Amino acid sequence: MEVALFIHKIQGEPASEMIDQAGAMAPSLLRQHGRLALVFLVLLLGTATTSSALTLPKLPKLPNFRPGRWRYAHATFYGDETASETMGTYVRRNISHQNSRMVLHAVKLTAVDIPGGACGFGNLFSTGYGTATAALSTVLYLGGFSCGQCFQIRCAKSQYCYRGSPIATITATNLCPPNWALPSNNGGWCNPPRPHFDMSKPAFMKIAQWRAGIVPVMYRRVPCPRRGGIRFLLQGNGYWLLTFVMNVGGAGDVGSIWVKGSKTGWMKMSHNWGASYQAFSRLGGQSLSFKVVSYSTKQTIFAYNVAPANWWTGKTYQARVNFK
Asked: Model pTM?
């Protein structure tokens, strides 16, 4: 009878109050009805607390990337109408890296085929970026974390602007380095703290007459419309994985990345340069999964089993997921 009264009393009560009341009644139930009543009470509380846990509010989902506000900058162009100068080729380089498996942490030189450009995107035709690209000045490049970001650019307040101020949408694929030998307002266009876009000539010709050389522009960040999943170009060897991350949607950028072999846990990769990340671990002969966090939105994507156990260096593997 006492158990029945207890059940009737707590109907509709919050789980925390049920637990408090049950704790007060437990000694009495044990004396009068033995262990069976106490077991029943424990099972009842377990059901109540489980139900309460299931109704807890979910964590808010981070929003998809949205266009930013318009800002002022300047734009130039490099190369010709073919944009061949923007096409980074794969170059055989000796990359220094620290082998964490060695006691003395010796610095080694490893010869690998590195895609050109300060972002490491290589040939922009084959990697899907085309000619709608630009090199960013230092303040926009952000040490490589802006690689892959998308911008809308339009000519502003210049006699060389096309009528109607058409917009060119470009991807950040390179760095426009400072030129300290020239003043910032006369040749040193990419010197800090100037925001500047050195566009491919085809992209520049969408917003202004090429003979202008340099024009004032307005620009803003926009979401990157990418087809398919995130792509991972794998370099290095079985003990040192160097990964170039491309075709990133949404904000277009990468803030951090983790790798997981089929025989390992998740390991955070260190930022090497541009859009490349590295991990010092024996990952050869294992299928690879990646966890990617956006630099701008902090959104996280898990890309499982992107590369098979017999993955090759120099090959690009595409995930089935991407940011929006």
From this structure: 0.74
